[in-house]
Amino acid sequence: MGGRGSGGGDGGRVRGHGSGGVDAVMSVDDVSREASRIADGRLPVTALDALAGDAPFLSIDHLRAGYGRMEVLHDFSLRAGKGQSLCLIGPNGAGKSTVLHSIFGFTDIFEGTISVGGRDVTGLSSSNKLASAGIAYILQDNSVFPDMTVEENLWMGGYLKAKPDAARAAAENVFEKYPRLAERRRQPARVLSGGERRLLEISRALVMDPEVLLVDEPSIGLEPRYIDMVFEILGDLQRKDGKTIIMVEQNAKKGLEFADLGYVLVSGDLVKAASGDDLLDDRDVGRLFLGG
User: Fold this and answer.
1) How many domains does the chain have?
2) Which of 52, 117, 146, 226 could form a disulfide with 56 if both were Cys (CB 3.0 to 4.6 A apart)?
3) Residue 281 maps to which CATH number?
4) Do residues 101 and 126 make contact, with C-beta atoms less than 8 angstroms apart?
5) Quick check: is 22 in a domain?
6) pLDDT tens per residue across span 178-197
7) To the nearest 5 percent, what fractions of the chain are helix, strand and coil?
């Protein structure tokens, strides 16, 4: 499944229409209405299977989920192959982050199933999904502990490991992989740059050696030079380590350039699914979501 996962998609070639977010031209309500008109209809699961190479590793089937009594996702299905990356795009309130929340156990599931590697993980707690199902969630908010050292932050990533020494050994593996963090291991996390903090958040998730990375808005709040660095790191994790990545990204163009697959959500429904390249070249997607 390998994938593009390099942050540039085509060796730096400019793709798609425009360069920005969902609200570049229209209001969110306008985008939602227009996107509903260009929907491909109810996408059959067989089509989603084909996009995942007919070998899905992460599967969501007919999911209805939300918060309390509020249903956000309606009969939602998803497929991603082992080592594939998938980017969810759509207007604010479309349910993109709710997909990640549902996979990790942060929502109420009313109907449907979620499975990883053929194992039904729908009812597992978030801690069990991390510890035993190999699913890690990288939050969009700044989640480092500023007064702890870089090293201590990494140890916190292994809090579910049976032995503290195992977390320390995993942290050492991270330092070997990312010398940039190793140089700052004894320094408090508050001294890190925005890009370094994001690297620490990603690295902390790796301490449990997950197979699936849920990444919520990797570029949010970062300067452009750090955005490229973060996408390069994610691409490396996909290509070299075989991680399956499900991402929500505010910069739809950047996300689709990175990802093998793209799903367009509107009001909790999946309205389009294709390769990242095909969505970049889709004029309607460009007009509504790529700012041009």
Assistant:
1) 1
2) 52
3) 3.40.50.300
4) no
5) no
6) 998 999 999 999 999 988 99
7) 40, 25, 40
- Asked whether residue 2 is domain-assigned, the answer is no
Phi, psi of 158 (to 5 degrees): -105, 25
CB 149 within 8 A of CB 189: yes
Buried b (16+ CB within 10 A) or exposed e, 16-50: bbeebbbebebeeeebbeebeebeeeebebeebbe
Q: DSSP readout, 204-267?
A: HHHTT--SEEEEE-TTTT--HHHHHHHHHHHHHHHHTT--EEEEE-SSHHHHHHH-SEEEEEET
CB within 8 Å of 104: residues ≥ 6 apart: 126, 129, 135, 137, 214
State the pLDDT at residue 40.
Answer: 67
The size of the chain, in residues, is 292
| Residues 6+ away with beta carbon under 8 Å from 142 | 197, 221
For residue 17, is it within any domain?
no
| CA 95 – CA 78 distance, rounded (Å) | 13
pLDDT tens across 253-286, in order? 999 999 999 999 999 999 999 999 999 999 989 9
Domain hosting residue 82, numbered range:
28-287
AA identity, residue 102: S
Domain for residue 133, yes or no?
yes
Q: What is the CA radius of gyration of the chain?
A: 18
With bands split at pLDDT 50, 70 and 90, how would you rate the model's confidence at 216?
very high
